[in-house]
Write a structure and sequence with these properties.
This protein is an alpha+beta fold. It contains 19 helices and 23 strands. It is 35% helix and 24% strand. α3 runs antiparallel to α5, α11 packs across α13 and α12 crosses α17.
Length: 580
């Protein structure tokens, strides 16, 4: 019987066979895992990798001025995003994309190497930048990058009225300052939702998007601001700040009858479209956030209250020495006034002594009642972010003998420029206080309009208001406010200068002041009130005879320039006829 000989070639066949058997066994086991034991888990993992639950941002409403000119708009932009887990060469990708989108190379590399499935490469890209970035991604076959739609908020007028209009956040587009914040709910609309399937490169898979809820665009907001008047007010105030070296300032132009704010200026300001130069210190709207002691500008409340209560008449005489001592404090007049002055003279010459004597006849209780009725101690409006209520202690807290005395001449009381605008508008509007406001109307997506109806209440009689306007006219024609005169229109107003209170030290500055001028124009048929406030003006003019720290020197000329231009813009016919 022949013996079978084992050959090496047979051994190789056995090995190869075993390898194939083991391989197919492994494949079979893996198929069992994928399609059987782990099928549900893996299917869910794949679904999670493809599917994105995305928020559709609603188009933010537009902010317009009173003439329908756009002040804040939203345009379509793109965000370039990446899935770091899919980016194969972070350094190469960063070197290609960083110069195009303006990103920092080192920072971008770090983000592309980070754990997680999402990071921003650049945001709010538009136009040519998007096209060049898209072309670079395609040319270099970069994986893991995609573009997403996102809104970009722009302010076509630049820095014009920027503290009033405000800003939005870069991340979610919500309002953070100004009207953008106050009206955020109306402007934002309602975000939508959708489910999107994306491939490994982050591209949306066609026919694989399911819209759950569409976005609803926000309402438009129309402001009372007049862009031309706003521009003139900003230019005039900036020139006044430059002349006087003031640290800043604010100005308001308010319509007497309606309470509409035609211009509101806070300087220094900012440009909401240029975040690179944004200084947080410029974000606040000084006209509503900053609180000052109003000085002599508040004397009109003391005098109007005394007239309304019948305590004095315009021709009531008072002895007016250069100084008067009350409760251990000595109050003096600037310059030397006549020894006897009528109430009208006291207003014209801005006599501290005379005003204090009027207040002492009026009494603290009545004085407080009118300060409250004129709107002090509470916000003047609901339209402004961060508006201060000012400071007005209840009369029950006037413990010292000098509390009422100081309030009579504008000390011990804190006000905002907007509150003071409302006071003078009350004198101009036959004694009726009208709520200042900057929102004219809200226009919903369906065209429905919500028009602002300001609050109103009578403070003094029309007769008292007319008498006060006559006195304010004398202030400009013959008194401390002569620099506020306008050639074409008769005006009236009041100067004011208060020592600047330094919060850090808790003391008044020995050199710096807050300089005011508040005026009504035309005084015989009022259309507007203009408030000008300068923070720490300095220097002298006319060979050193006049100090810029006083409102009559530094603030009054700014009023004249703003008021004259605003009246022309409003179409008011020049006239000096008629009596206030």
């Amino acid at each position: 019987m022949a013996r079978t000989t084992f050959r090496f070639v047979d051994f190789r066949l056995i090995v190869v066979g075993l390898v194939f058997v083991l391989a197919w066994a492994g494949i079979g086991y893996r198929l069992f895992q994928v399609q059987g034991a782990d099928a549900a888990t893996l299917a869910q993992r794949g679904f999670d990798q493809r599917v994105r639950h995305e928020t559709i941002q609603a188009k933010r409403g537009t902010i317009y001025d009173r003439d329908g000119i756009e002040l804040a708009i939203t345009v379509h932009a793109k965000a370039l995003v990446a899935d770091p887990s899919l980016v194969e060469e972070p350094e190469e990708a960063a070197s290609i994309l960083a110069p195009i989108v303006g990103a920092d190379y080192v920072e971008l590399v770090q983000r592309l190497k980070a754990d997680g499935r999402f990071t921003y490469v650049a945001r709010r890209l538009t136009g040519d930048t998007v096209d060049r970035a898209r072309e670079a991604i395609t040319s270099a076959d970069l994986v893991g990058f995609t573009f997403r739609d996102e809104p970009l908020r722009l302010y076509p007028a630049g820095s014009l009225a920027s503290p009033v209009i405000g800003l939005t956040r870069l991340d979610d587009g919500s309002g953070t300052e100004g009207i953008e914040a106050v009206m955020d709910t109306e402007l934002s609309g309602r975000a939508g939702k959708r489910i999107v399937e994306r491939d490994q490169a982050g591209r949306a898979i066609p026919q694989a998007e399911f819209l759950l809820e569409p976005a609803v665009a926000g309402s438009d907001v129309v402001l009372t601001l007049d862009r031309e008047i706003q521009y003139t007010a900003e230019s005039a105030l900036q020139a006044g700040i430059d002349r006087s070296g003031a640290l800043g300032g604010s100005a308001i132009v308010m319509s007497v009858a309606s309470g509409e704010i035609l211009a509101m200026v806070s300087l220094p300001g900012f440009d909401g479209s240029d975040r690179s130069t944004l200084d947080p210190a410029t974000l606040r709207n000084r006209a509503v956030t900053d609180v000052y002691e109003p000085g002599s500008t508040l004397k009109v409340v003391t005098v109007a209250a005394a007239l309304e209560e019948g305590v004095v008449r315009p021709d009531t005489p008072f002895e007016t020495p250069h100084e008067i001592a009350i409760g251990g404090e000595t109050y003096t007049d600037h310059g030397y006034n006549p020894a006897v002055m009528t109430v009208s003279d006291i207003v014209e010459k801005s006599s501290n002594v005379g005003t204090i004597k009027i207040q002492r006849q009026l009494g603290n209780e009545a004085h407080y009642r009118y300060l409250d009725a004129f709107g002090l101690g509470r916000p003047a409006s609901i339209d402004f972010a961060g508006e201060s209520a000012g400071q007005l202690q209840h009369v029950s807290e006037w413990k010292t003998a000098t509390a009422g005395t100081s309030a009579a001449i504008g000390y011990g009381v804190g006000v905002t420029p907007l509150q003071m605008a409302a006071i003078y508008a009350t004198l101009a509007n036959e004694g009726e206080w009208v709520e200042p406001h900057v929102v004219s109307e809200i226009i919903a997506l369906d065209g429905e309009r919500t028009v602002t109806e300001p609050r109103r209440h009578q403070v003094i009689s029309p007769e008292t208001a007319r008498t006060m306007r006559g006195m304010l006219r004398r202030v400009v024609e013959d008194g401390t406010g002569f620099r506020a005169e306008i050639d074409e229109f008769p005006v009236g107003g009041k100067t004011g200068t208060s020592d600047k209170f330094i919060v850090e030290t808790g003391r008044y500055s020995e050199t710096d002041t807050i300089a005011w001028f508040i005026g009504i124009a035309p005084i015989d048929d009022p259309e507007i009130v203009v408030v000008v406030v300068l923070d720490a003006p300095s220097g002298k003019i006319e060979d050193g005879r006049y100090d810029m720290k006083f409102g009559g020197t530094s603030a009054a000329p700014i009023f004249a320039e703003i008021a004259e231009s605003a009246l022309h813009q409003l179409g008011v016919s020049p006239t000096h006829d008629g009596d206030a």
